[in-house]
Amino acid sequence: MQFHRGYAVLALAVFAIEVVIALYVRDRFVRPYLGDVLAVILVYLGLRTVTRLRVTAAAICALAIAFLVEFGQLFGFVDRIGLGHNRVARIVFGTGFDPHDLLAYAAGALIVVAIERSWPGRRR
């Protein structure tokens, strides 16, 4: 295990943006889709903060986690584990499956890989 301060700072920044979106944005694009893109980026940054996973592996893991959460929504995961009444669990895990979210998650994973690979000064 490792701790990478740069990724931690970025993760905190993305988390803050996600909180602002969740609390104040009520639209049909930013909250549902940009929020999902950022969710995958946040998970990616979290993984890169505390693991030695390389870019592609971390992006795939972040995408897999997002897909698992989304498919959990399809099968009522939150209710099945007895947390349907818990507001935080409903926010974190969600309650409504939307296949469009899968595309937003994939876009988030592609964005992080593209940014990481094109970042100036990055070791190749």
Main sheet attributes: strand count, strand direction, barrel closure = none
Span of the ends, CA to CA: 22 Å
Specify the overall morphology. Answer: globular
Give the helices and strands as they follow along the chain. HHHHHH
Supply the number of structural domains: 1
Q: Which ranges are low-confidence, i.e. pLDDT below 50, for 5 or more consecutive residues?
A: none
The computed structural class is mainly alpha
Compute the number of helices: 6
Proportion in helices? over 70%
Topology:
Elements: H1 5-24, H2 30-50, H3 55-74, H4 77-80, H5 87-93, H6 99-118
Helix pairs in contact: 1-2, 2-3, 2-6, 3-6
How would you characterize this protein structure?
The chain is mostly helical. The chain has helices spanning 5-24, 30-50, 55-74, 77-80, 87-93, 99-118. The longest helix is centred in the first third of the chain and has 21 residues, at 30-50. The chain is globular, with a radius of gyration of 15 Å. The model has no long low-confidence stretch (mean pLDDT 94).
Task: Provide a short characterization of the protein structure.
With 124 residues, this protein is mostly helical.
Main attributes of the structure:
124 residues; mainly alpha; 74% helix; 0% strand; transmembrane helix; transmembrane
